[in-house]
Write a structure and sequence with these properties.
Blueprint lengths: L1 H4 L2 H11 L8 H10 L2 H4 L4 H9 L7 H12 L8 H12 L4 H17 L3 H18 L2 H18 L2 H18 L2 H18 L2 H11 L12 H14 L3 H13 L7 H14 L2 H12 L8 H17 L3 H18 L2 H13 L2 E3 L17 H11 L4 H8 L3 H15 L7 H6 L8 E3 L8 E8 L2 E7 L4 H10 L3 E5 L2 E5 L8
Antiparallel strand pairs: 1-2, 3-4, 5-6
């Protein structure tokens, strides 16, 4: 009741009932009051005891105890240590054991799989858990699994699905006073709005969980939306609110809870920081030990770093961060974020090789600058000049000027014709080369083509990551050399 109600006043009689038991609270009950009920304000002193409890799961056979410790571990990012025990509970449930415990275990493993970058596994667990909820009447647990589905849909860019699922959650939660459950829907809607570039809606949804500058008491989901709130605040011109929320993240000590929270705290600080501080803060965030265990969160920080560095004209560094983020988003299937990273790489001067040649009937299209192409794509998707300006950190006058230059190159006279004109261009996704089109001093690289053949080349710093990724994924990239361009692609029999 206290947890799902999501209101501080509900916890007061709970703590009053516990008072006579202190300091001899049962271990799991103590952990819940610290790491689950109000992790932003109470988790840090309990982390040592929680780590001991997680380590003890190897010898634990009670599925209820395993699930309770898993719940205590969720908001403080300790679920990885619970995986083996939680999977035991799932297997027992599949074989006729405790169904409710199995559903809870699937829910926790679903959340963990998403954060660990195992999205197919997360999808399967949510679907299986929902099936059990429907078969056995566990409706309340079903909403948590449906939240998992909505969040995954939002991350993949399946916005209609995410909206349908969150609407269902809200319709159930609002009349019952389930504020925590409403917060789950707000979280999924926040991510969907960020993916769509609707930063105003993202800000409103995140602030509905916990306002800017505040980590509301006993609202654990405030930890989940903190990074989005700061990024949306900056992108909508609310820099005071962004700075206030970063200050709240630091004051509550979120970075001491887990490497993931340290990553998003420092990453959010970098997003909100002035230009002369941002690069150092991004570097600090991405150097946090263990941050790579959270690929989606880390790639989002890399993307933000690349965007900021590109606008500061630190192009080489920007390409490195953007290329790494792009690789992660592709692997995960996070299409909106992949598109954003690709657009940024184009604006950083890495454009698809095939697009360097004019399309039939569009002789001027090849002369589109990366910025013009990016803005034209966003305009074709229906964004207004103001929305494009917010997304790209430009003025709306600059956006209008770029469109003015792009229209004659594409052979169009209105925004309505942009979509068809851009669709007529050769596909750009996934095949980048340096727009400057010339070799320069850099690092000498080599790759094995298979079949006993190797190729070496010089490339500018930052470009080599894309070439290496192309080799691993067997995609086609173009490397410009003096006097000629060499394409790396599939050869006969799968050899390069």
């Amino acid at each position: 009741m206290c947890s799902f109600g999501g209101r501080t006043e509900l916890w007061e009689p709970f703590y009053a009932a516990l008072a006579p038991l202190t300091p001899q609270l049962p271990a799991v009950l103590y952990l819940w009051t610290r790491t689950f009920a109000d992790p932003a304000h109470a988790a840090v002193p309990a982390l040592g005891r929680l780590d001991d409890a997680v380590a003890g799961l190897a010898g634990e056979s009670d599925p209820v105890q395993i699930v309770r410790i898993g719940i205590a571990a969720d908001y403080v990012d300790r679920l990885a240590g619970c995986r083996e025990a939680l999977w035991r509970v799932v297997r027992e449930g599949r074989e006729g054991g405790a169904v409710a415990s199995a559903i809870n275990a699937m829910m926790l493993l679903c959340f963990d799989a998403f954060r660990a970058g195992q999205w197919a596994e997360a999808e399967q667990l949510a679907a299986e858990g929902l099936g059990l909820c429907q078969a056995h009447g566990y409706r309340l647990l079903a909403w948590l699994l449906q939240y998992g589905q909505a969040f995954l849909a939002a991350a993949r860019g399946h916005y209609d699905t995410a909206e349908t699922l969150t609407d269902e959650i809200t319709r159930w939660a609002v009349p019952r006073g389930g504020r925590a459950v409403q917060g789950y829907a707000c979280h999924a809607r926040t991510l969907a709005a960020m993916g769509q570039g609707d930063c105003e809606r993202a800000y409103q949804q995140a602030a509905a969980v916990s306002p800017a500058g505040v980590f509301a008491s006993h609202v654990p989901h405030a930890l989940r939306v903190a990074f989005d709130l700061v990024e949306a605040a900056v992108r909508t011109g609310r820099r005071t609110e962004a700075a206030a929320h970063v200050a709240a993240m630091r004051e509550t000590g979120l970075g001491a809870i887990s490497p993931r929270l340290a990553l998003i705290t420092t990453g959010a600080a970098a997003i909100a920081a002035p230009d002369h501080q941002a690069a150092a803060l991004f570097a600090e965030a991405l150097a946090i030990p263990g941050a790579a265990e959270w690929p989606f969160d880390r790639a989002r920080v890399q993307l933000a770093a690349g965007e900021r560095l590109r606008r500061a004209r630190a192009t080489t560094q920007a390409r490195q961060h953007l290329g790494a983020a792009l690789d992660t988003f592709r692997r995960l299937g996070a299409r909106p974020w992949q598109a954003r990273a690709e657009n940024e790489l184009r604006a950083a001067g890495l454009v698809p090789a095939i697009a360097a040649r004019p399309g039939p009937g569009l002789p001027g299209a090849a002369s589109l600058t990366p910025q013009e192409y990016e803005i034209a794509m966003l305009a074709a998707a229906g964004l207004t000049n103001k929305q494009i300006a917010e997304r790209l950190y430009l003025s709306h006058r600059t956006v209008a000027a770029h469109l003015y230059q792009a229209f004659p190159k594409l052979g169009v006279t209105s925004r309505a014709a942009l979509r068809d004109a851009l669709a007529a261009l050769p596909a750009r996704s996934g095949t980048f080369h340096d727009q400057e089109g010339k070799a320069s001093a850099g690092t000498r690289r080599s790759i094995s083509y298979g079949c006993g053949r190797t190729r070496s080349w010089h490339t500018k710093p930052g470009t080599h990551d894309l070439i290496s990724d192309a080799y691993r994924r067997r995609e086609t990239y173009m490397i410009k050399k003096p006097g000629r361009a060499e394409r790396l692609g599939r050869g006969a029999g799968g050899c390069w």
